[in-house]
Specification:
It is a single chain. With 129 residues, the protein is of the alpha+beta class. The protein has a domain of 89 residues. Helices cover 34% and strands 22% of the residues. The chain has four helices and six strands.
């Protein structure tokens, strides 16, 4: 299982618009591809078209799920996934690297350098600054 990291600006300001964040990620990870995930309402519609109604509590929860802007980039011996979230400005970037190559680490270091902060494990609380 891969570890997911969160990257925020050290000054706690948003990272930027979708376009700005994608441009930085593309510069560091040139082969990255971005797309919008299927929203909860779209998933409910698909489920109901393909298999009948969902239990009410699951349907209610799924209807609240937004579409997210995600990305992925792959190298020879690594892969990294990005999550920009559902809204602008992008408050934080989720990064899930797989692999331990020097190339991947250098690219991740460059990404951290762009925002002046270090990625933290997503479930961890950041140190006080």
């Amino acid at each position: 299982m891969a570890t997911e990291y969160t990257l925020r600006r050290k000054d706690h300001q948003p990272l930027g618009t979708f376009e700005e964040v994608q441009a930085i990620v593309r510069r560091i990870f040139p082969g990255v591809e971005f797309w919008w995930t299927t929203s909860g309402p779209e998933k409910v519609q698909q489920a109901e078209e393909n298999g009948g109604p969902l239990p009410p509590h699951i349907k209610e929860w799924m209807l609240t799920l937004p579409s997210m802007l995600d990305g992925v980039c792959e190298g020879d011996d690594w892969l990294v996934e990005f999550g920009l979230g559902p809204t602008e400005p992008v408050p934080e970037l989720y990064v899930q690297p797989r692999g331990d190559s020097l190339e991947l680490q250098q690219r991740l270091d460059a990404l951290e350098g762009e925002y002046g902060n270090t990625m933290i494990v997503s479930a961890a609380e950041p140190d006080s600054e």
